[in-house]
Design goal:
70% helix; three-stranded mixed beta sheet; 10% strand; Alpha-Beta Plaits; 307 residues; Alpha-lytic protease prodomain-like; mainly alpha; 8 helices
């Protein structure tokens, strides 16, 4: 029953990941068509720049979609733990791209400050920015929901792309308003602040990808939860050698159970399976492996420790 639930839960998460990537590609296509159409009629340089940014977002989302198809492939004879690390490699590459874009934006904005570039726009351009911001906002909400469900670093990275779009759009709108009041340098100043925000946030995404590639253990809160669930069983005398890591969106949990030496093998296995089922209630997609060790039946329940 628990295996079936695990399969259903994982299938649901996989479907969510596919849907959110398809939504990102669809939204990027819609925004490109909208912005290029408005640019043709208005001639706005700001909208042209925003169109190019949306094209880059589309390319990033398409790459993410195909990387995700690789990451979701099941384990095979050559990849016993699956292909999910492709997701972290893509997330790391995306983070590098975002960081590079932020640095370029800073230098571009500094050049604008020095040349006193005149901001060009029209009412059509403003309407296009407002509409694209609303559409992107709903996409980001969906991406955030999927990330909370799946903890996919690739979705988090893609979400950041579109959050940047929202900030850039709002920055352009604010710059247009300030421009009306005579602050001609508002546009590059706001761009520099957005780029700084990008650099501040992208480091957390890159670092998380590196940690997952390096098989970092699960957070302390989850380790404490695992310990509590295992030792809660009255027939478990103790546990040790707990090892954990994250493979894609699935946690991997390995541990040694200390059980009475008087138990039959079948009885010990029943206890081990029961503990595993209890863990799967809190970690439904986990890959759990346990080893049983016999200890004297009179041994008092030990405290948790790591070897």
């Amino acid at each position: 029953m628990f295996i079936q639930k695990k399969i259903q839960f994982k299938h649901k998460n996989d479907q969510l990941l596919k849907y959110v990537m398809q939504a990102a590609i669809s939204v990027a296509c819609l925004l490109i068509i909208l912005k290029i159409t408005i640019w043709v009629f208005s001639g706005s340089i700001s909208i042209l720049a925003s169109s190019i940014d949306s094209i880059l977002d589309l390319l990033a989302s398409i790459i993410n979609f195909f990387v995700l198809k690789i990451a979701l492939k099941p384990a095979d004879s050559d990849h016993h733990f699956g292909h999910s690390k492709a997701e972290q490699l893509a997330a790391l590459a995306q983070a590098s791209f975002i960081g590079g874009s932020a640095v370029y934006l800073i230098f571009f904005s500094i050049d604008r400050l020095q040349t006193n570039h005149i901001l060009e726009y029209s009412n059509l351009a403003i309407y296009a920015i407002i509409i694209s911001t609303i559409i992107t906002f709903f996409l980001v909400l969906f991406q955030r929901y999927v990330y909370q469900k799946t903890q996919s670093n690739l979705v988090k990275t893609d979400e950041m792309h579109y959050k940047m779009d929202i900030l850039i759009n709002l920055g352009v709108l604010l710059a247009l308003v300030l421009n009306e009041y005579g602050w001609k340098q508002a546009d590059p100043m706001i761009s520099i602040m957005i780029a700084a925000w990008m650099l501040f946030n992208v480091k957390s995404i890159a670092w998380r990808a590196i940690e997952l590639l390096m098989d970092k253990a699960l957070p302390e809160q989850q380790l404490a939860s695992i310990k509590s669930i295992i030792l809660k069983d009255t027939e478990v005398y103790g546990m040790h050698t707990l090892r954990t890591r994250q493979v894609g969106i699935d946690p991997v949990i390995q541990y040694h159970l200390e059980l009475s030496s008087n138990l039959l093998l079948s009885e010990a296995y029943t206890i081990g399976s029961r503990v595993k089922k209890n863990l799967l209630q809190s970690f439904p997609t986990a890959d759990i492996t346990f080893h049983m060790e016999p200890v004297p039946s009179k041994k008092i329940k030990t405290s948790y420790h790591l070897n």
